[in-house]
Design goal:
Layout lengths: L7 H25 L5 H31 L5 H20 L1 H4 L13 H24 L8 H25 L1 H4 L7 H34 L3 H23 L20 H15 L6 H13 L1 H11 L6 H7 L8 H20 L5 H38 L11 H15 L14 H8 L8 H12 L22 E15 L4 E12 L7 E8 L4 E10 L2 E4 L1 E4 H14 L6 E7 L2 E9 L5 E9 L3 E5 L2 E5 L12 E2 L5 E4 L1 H5 L3 E2 L2 E9 L8 H14 L15 E5 L3 E3 L6 H7 L8 H14 L4 E8 L24 E5 L6 E4 L2 E5 L12 E4 L7 E4 L5 E4 L17 H17 L1 H6 L1 H11 L6 E5 L3 H15 L24 H23 L1
Parallel strand pairs: 1-3, 15-16, 15-18, 18-19
Antiparallel strand pairs: 1-2, 2-9, 3-8, 4-5, 4-9, 6-25, 7-8, 7-25, 10-11, 12-13, 13-24, 14-22, 16-17, 19-20, 20-21, 22-23
Helix pairs in contact: 1-2, 1-5, 2-3, 3-5, 5-8, 6-8, 6-13, 8-14, 9-10, 9-14, 11-14, 11-15, 12-14, 15-16, 16-18, 19-27, 24-26
């Protein structure tokens, strides 16, 4: 422990944590600064000055000691204890002013007071250890028993003093005689809370340190080591898990989730190595040093976990009979360091100095490296599965490790749960924060996505995936009152430079019943092709606030937090709910007051826009000439066809063919014969009317579907392939349908697929709610069929895949489509619906932002962004690499895309919070989530686990003061 006198330790235990404290608190202050009243700003300045004094003092003393070759002395230790304690007292006393109630809690997920206590405690602990070293010179004998006796006397004296003052009615005797009585009782309380734990910890650590110095006889030494390194750690883990009262769950604990057998195994191994007699042979002693060093990370981890609780140690010992277990990591660390020091001293005559130091450093790094390697493996497994499901490469054959994914999802679920438990936690302090940073990019993986992944890889039935057309913001508890559209108007002008219309759509919304309960207006509406959103506004407190264009997940998260808090902060959100469909939300709509909002549209042709049953005309036919022909981006990669231009394209009829998707998942091996018979009967009967008026059916194709899609080669015996196929995994129909549709659009030809799903229960498969992103791949019809047992084929729509449709005429084969650009050499087929269309000229080719200037006009930029959205659906893996460039192009042109949202906010603090969250989401994997679905509380960091204990301290202090006042009045 005498190495702690080296000035370099101050850089590790003091300067580093204090710098991190400044960065974290500075980030929080930058977000909420505009919301703070003058008194709070003054408190922030005072605390900042206190931090500067503390940091400057420690850093300056470290530099002076290093330059002069002096070791850290007792005067520094005492001064550091006083300065650090004063700084914590200042922060704690000003906590309500540093973070007033007017600041929404979602903006500051971790209280600055928690930061202060967490990152100043290393300085105080180091100073306390220095005092122990200086009070216990190694050149004179010491006895441990008096130190342990004094340590036990501190909580006993505190308990007796409390009883004595209460029985003597101490404060009542001085009632009215002391003008600063409240100040006196407050000062006494602070002194008791500061001096009591310091004295208790000082004598406790000194006693443990003396035992190590005295090197007691073998029997006493081994007994001491067994108690400290083996009995107390295992007992502490059992008590934390509720083993003696059964009050906690299997995956939760008082201080965190330490229920894994690994924690118990490492505790036993650590105790065995520390209690092991030292061998005489140098080689074995070196190996023992390496083993003991390897477990130093385990000891140090629990020391860090309990470090913020050390000031509560006296109260814990008084209040809880097993409270002394909180102190076991501190005593164990002293013992562990002392044993390692003895090993180094014993090896110094036998080996070069660097050998022992290398064994110590290498061993100490072992556990952190193993933990990091385990977490990195989880990251690779999870991100590979996310890429396959949400960003697949349709040309690649996948073979992922399903058991490894199952284990990883179990770990993810453990680390993401229970972040705000007060008396028990299901996370692991610090480790969960590290895991969430390394594996989840500081975001989360929603429960619905985890269930989806489990269903894909392990045939677990997952709930229907929430699609764009579903409920966007479901909330727990009572929902805001509904609001309705009262008035819809529009303003249009023709921009000759862009050769496009610029229209503003204005909405007036109000509560349906005019009641006082704040309401929310939500709607979704269709947007025609060739129409882009170029702006958004919301009237807030008499001013018109323009919407900020932000990354969609970050914008959704900020909007959801404001609604969750229900603090009437006036957000408005406009985003895509799916291809060609927008969603609009405004909150709050209070009483009978009318809220006004609106958005800008850029469009080539006049159009009629319908929202909530009201229709408004944008532009006029007489106001500007309609485009005579196709309009394309530079290079012709993306083409816009007006309704008239598309109508002039040749009308052709393509030959349909059945593409059977056969369920080959786990547990369906016994149904293979039934599937074969069902398909054969269907092909013989030619039901569902596809032959009526069609040019004839092409040869059928087959794909065997489990976790992956396995196409049967053309001309091969599909029955033989099915019989030999090993059934495993889930039935991931979504991926199979996507691959078939993407191939149909990438390779347009004279035939088109009619999908036929063959399964025993379509509800047990993994099927997306819609395939709107690939709508260009099925221009003839959106119908597909499901062959279920015991009944005729069921018709469904690719726009609503989870809902059975009424049996239609199934005239897909009789419908003509428009061939673009010519019938002889078509590159795309378009539905004959009289509507405009956006077409990719070369869907197989790469589509990316070039280094040169962008499109000449905003409308052309919107055309390029729209084409990129189509290309992204065909090449999700390649598009993921260009996600940031796509979002940046949206920002530069101020045009809404499926990856961005317009968000109108009330104040600068909300905008700062949005920017902070956006930086986080842009740096993370695009398949991860910013929040749960349905809406969950703001995501907390594991440091929030300590807020409950600080709250207990505050409650105890408040109870003490109230008790004194009640005694004074008695």
């Amino acid at each position: 422990m005498r190495t702690l006198q080296n000035p370099r330790w101050l850089l590790v235990v003091s300067t580093g944590p204090l710098v991190l404290l400044a960065l974290l608190c500075g980030g929080e202050y930058g977000v909420i600064q505009s919301l703070l009243p003058p008194a709070s700003l003054l408190r922030w300045q005072q605390c900042g000055l206190g931090w500067a004094v503390l940091a400057g003092f420690t850093l300056g003393y470290a530099g002076w000691s290093w330059a002069t070759g002096r070791r850290l002395g007792a005067r520094y230790a005492g001064a550091a204890l006083v300065a650090g304690g004063a700084f914590l007292w200042l922060c704690t006393a000003c906590g309500d002013e540093l973070l007033p109630r007017s600041v929404p809690r979602w903006m500051v997920p971790t209280d600055v007071l928690v930061y202060a206590w967490t990152f100043v405690m290393p300085t105080l602990a180091h100073a306390l250890l220095l005092l122990v070293v200086h009070a216990t010179p190694a050149d004179r004998p010491h006895r441990a028993l008096p130190s342990f006796g004094l340590a036990a006397a501190v909580p006993l004296a505190a308990w007796l003093l409390g009883l004595l003052l209460s029985s003597l009615r101490f404060f009542d005797r001085w009632d009215g005689m002391l003008p600063g009585q409240d100040l006196l009782s407050g000062a006494l309380l602070v002194a008791a809370l500061a001096l009591g734990p310091c004295a208790f910890l000082f004598f406790l650590v000194r006693g443990a340190y003396i035992i190590g110095l005295n090197r007691p006889d073998a029997a006493l030494g081994i007994a001491w080591k067994v108690v400290v390194s083996l009995v107390l750690p295992v007992l502490g883990l059992a008590v934390n898990a509720g083993a003696f009262w059964g009050g906690l769950g299997h995956e939760a604990g008082i201080f965190g989730n330490f229920c894994s057998p690994w924690f118990y195994g490492l505790a036993v191994l650590n105790g065995a190595l520390l209690c092991c007699p030292n061998p005489q042979r140098p080689g074995w002693r070196l190996a023992l040093l390496a083993g003991r060093s390897a477990l130093l990370g385990y000891t140090f981890y629990f020391f860090l976990v309990f470090l913020p609780f050390l000031p509560l140690s006296v109260l814990a010992v008084i209040a809880v009979g097993t409270g002394f277990l909180m102190l076991a990591p501190l005593v164990l660390l002293v013992l562990h360091v002392q044993v390692l020091s003895d090993d180094l001293e014993a090896l110094r005559p036998r080996f070069a100095r660097w050998v022992g130091r290398a064994a110590l450093a290498g061993g100490a790094a072992l556990l952190p490296l193993l933990v990091t390697a385990s977490y990195w493996h989880d990251r690779q497994v999870l991100h590979a599965a996310l890429a396959y499901v949400y960003r697949p490469d349709y040309a690649r054959a996948y073979a992922l490790n399903a058991p490894a994914l199952a284990r990883t999802l179990a770990v993810v679920r453990q680390h993401k749960a229970g972040t705000r438990d007060l008396f028990m936690g299901s996370q692991q302090p610090y480790l969960s924060a590290y895991y969430n940073w390394l594996v989840l990019d500081n975001l989360t993986l929603s429960d619905s996505k985890m269930a989806h992944l489990e269903a894909v890889f392990a045939q677990r039935t997952a709930a229907a995936e929430e699609g764009p057309g579903g409920s966007v913001f479901p909330r727990p508890g009572p929902a805001p009152a509904p609001a309705v559209l009262r008035r819809l108007t529009a303003r249009s002008r023709y921009d000759a430079r862009q050769q496009a219309w610029v229209s503003w759509v204005d909405l007036e919304v109000a509560n349906a019943d005019g009641g006082p309960v704040p309401g929310e207006y939500r709607t979704a509406f269709a947007l025609p092709a060739g129409c882009w959103v170029g702006g958004y506004y919301l009237d807030i407190n008499g001013r018109r606030e323009s919407g900020l264009l932000a990354e969609q997940k970050a914008a959704d998260w900020v909007y959801a937090q404001i609604l969750h808090q229900q603090d009437r902060r006036d957000p408005g959100l406009l985003a895509y709910a799916g291809p060609g469909r927008l969603r609009l939300s405004v909150y709050p709509v209070v009483g009978a007051a009318v809220r006004r909002t609106g958005f800008q549209l850029l469009h080539k042709e006049p159009l009629a826009l319908a929202i909530d049953g009201q229709t408004v005309a944008l532009g006029t036919v007489a106001g500007a000439p309609a485009p005579a022909g196709p309009v394309a981006t530079a290079g012709g990669a993306v083409v816009y066809l007006s309704a008239a231009a598309k109508q002039r394209l040749p009308l052709v009829q393509r030959q349909p063919y059945y593409h059977f998707l056969i369920d080959a998942s786990a547990g369906k091996g016994g149904l293979k014969a039934a599937y074969e018979q069902r398909v054969a009967d269907f092909l013989r009967s030619g039901t569902e009317g596809l032959r009526n008026g069609a040019p004839g059916l092409g040869p059928p194709r087959f794909t065997l579907v489990n976790t992956y899609a396995h196409p049967v080669p053309a001309g091969a015996d599909w029955q033989q392939q099915l019989d030999a196929f090993p059934n495993a995994g889930g039935c991931y129909l979504t991926g199979a349908v996507q691959r078939v549709l993407a191939d149909a659009q990438l390779h347009p030809g004279p035939g088109y697929p009619v999908l036929v799903v063959v399964t025993d229960a379509v509800a047990a498969t993994v099927l997306a709610p819609d395939f709107d992103e690939l709508a260009a791949a099925y221009p003839e019809s959106d119908e597909f069929l499901v062959l279920s047992p015991g009944r005729r084929a069921e018709t469904r729509s690719l726009h609503r895949a989870l809902v059975p449709q009424p049996l239609g005429a199934a005239a897909a084969g009789a419908r003509g489509v428009r061939a673009w650009p010519t019938a002889a050499r078509p590159r795309a087929y378009l539905p004959d619906d009289g509507r405009p269309a956006v077409v990719l000229a070369q869907p197989q080719a790469a589509l990316s932002l070039g280094p040169g200037p962008g499109p000449a006009t905003r409308w052309l930029a919107g055309l390029w962004l729209s084409g990129y959205g189509q290309w992204q659906a065909l090449h999700p893996a390649a598009a993921d690499a260009q996600r940031l460039a796509f979002i940046q192009a949206s920002f530069q042109n101020q045009l809404l895309t499926p990856l961005t949202s317009f968000l109108a906010l009330e104040n600068e603090a909300q905008k700062a919070a949005l920017r902070r969250k956006q930086a986080q989401t842009l740096a993370a994997n695009a398949s991860l989530d910013a929040q749960e679905t349905p809406l969950d509380a703001p995501t907390a960091v594991p440091l929030d686990d300590y807020a409950g204990w600080l709250l207990l301290l505050g409650l105890w202090a408040g109870y003490w003061k109230l008790r004194q006042k009640s005694l004074q009045r008695a």
